[in-house]
């Protein structure tokens, strides 16, 4: 229940911070307490987090978004989501990159004259249930309290500005979706791909171990020559980069107790624990928009529960039987400790005012319905002790110190680069030190991984806009601050055999292993009436599976497309094979098939086409963001994206 109450407020923030639905995987934003209010930077609304083509993303924008994504992970992982996990995931960098993408899309929406009008903002605001009660606006006082309180905005004007931004982003998403053109033939083909399947009984002849096979130089060269299309690459870059590695530097830093206590005393307000109440709770739902009759029935039920409890009924038993709060009903209604500021105002007012151990009257909240509570204990606002805060302080302090040292080291190297202007890669590499190491990226393309750093859009973007011999400014990465040197550029083409020889040799061995499996299985199939007879020869049990074009098949590793297509086209009951699969060869019989009929296609074509348009619009959006990024002037303030933690319980 408590989580549901929080979500009522945070839902508004999720809407505003999602990037036109394209970051579904990743980032729905809520407050976890790991970012809190102390990121070591300024907290003024005008503080600079990033600039995108001259437009500023404020610290407040960034802080609110980071708190939201942290809470999303806390809700998903519970106690497993630790400050260390947050730091390893580099959430600050992920959040600021998503905010940059939002700003680019918003600027494009403005260029396309898709900005929101004041009337559109007003209608959007009045469509939010939190701000409506009995069909009417809740009033400016409550509206301002919600916006500047749980939603975390500095003012109602800032909130409405974000609403306008959301509307503009929705318009550009709609424009992208409208631009998608799908032919009836392509819709039907995709629908069949998604909905046809076959139930098969099969047996697998495993490939012999590749380690037992060899690939001669002649075989390798012949395979490479005949399969060159498998070894192509796009436009590529190779860089050398000097890296001030945060983790390596941090390992040598141990802040003293004196330093930690100084931080503790300077930031004592951050270690306050809010007042809290230990609450037992029963919810009788009355959804927003419920009819008068339905709401009256819920109120009557809640009053009946109150009467039973006051007459001596067992709270835990009634909660298990009657409460509609999924998070506490299974625990006998025990919400445990509910902190001040975590829940909706009528509920909070009640749990911090009613006498202890008394059954409340039904408490009505617009979002959920009728609540009956019993407060068994309260604790006042308190302060976390230095001993309790010390482990977190030590981790944060060492991390901050490491970042400061890393920046100082990389800035020193950068100053030397500016002065000496290395003429070649050897002179650049020679500028490395004990704390700034030299690294080789290998060849990578626009969507590829950089050796030692993984996928890193800002560095990749720079590398593909630079010339050979160019040196970058310091660039933040998950491992630390880096300075890159473009060591080589090559256009798309076929990778030379020398570069992919190991991969080609492995492919030769795989092909030999599959051919051996096909040959052996063909011998086993000779004269066999069915799959079970083949399985008996192999000393196996035949397996059954439902196969389709979308998923994997239990018992088969790697490539299955040829097997699936054969199963969907074969006659039921007919023995088929051998068919090559990833881990060998397969023989099978189709037990049943589900084929899409013309009537089913006609019935579902429109709704399925809408879904396809939405999916393709998201792909277009990703392409659009990439294009906007290439021509954008983006400046990110590294200093404010340092991952930090907040004490437990705050």
Mean pLDDT: 84
Helix/strand class = alpha+beta
What fraction, in percent, of the residue positions are helical?
40-55%
From the spread of the alpha carbons, the general shape counts as globular
Number of helices: 21
Biggest sheet, in brief?
4 strands, antiparallel
Radius of gyration: 31 Å
Strand content: 15-25%
- Compute the number of strand runs: 21
Spatial order of the strands forming the largest sheet: 18-5-20-19
Which spans of ≥5 residues are poorly predicted at pLDDT below 50? 1-46, 643-650
What separation lies between the terminal Cα atoms? Answer: 20 Å
Commentary on this structure:
The structure is a single chain. By secondary structure, this protein is of the alpha+beta class. It has 21 helices and 21 strands. The strands form 7 sheets. Strands 18-5-20-19 form a 4-stranded antiparallel β-sheet. β19 (575-581) and β20 form a beta hairpin. α5 (118-126) crosses α7 (156-179) and α8 crosses α21. The chain is globular. The model is unreliable at 1-46 and 643-650 (pLDDT under 50).
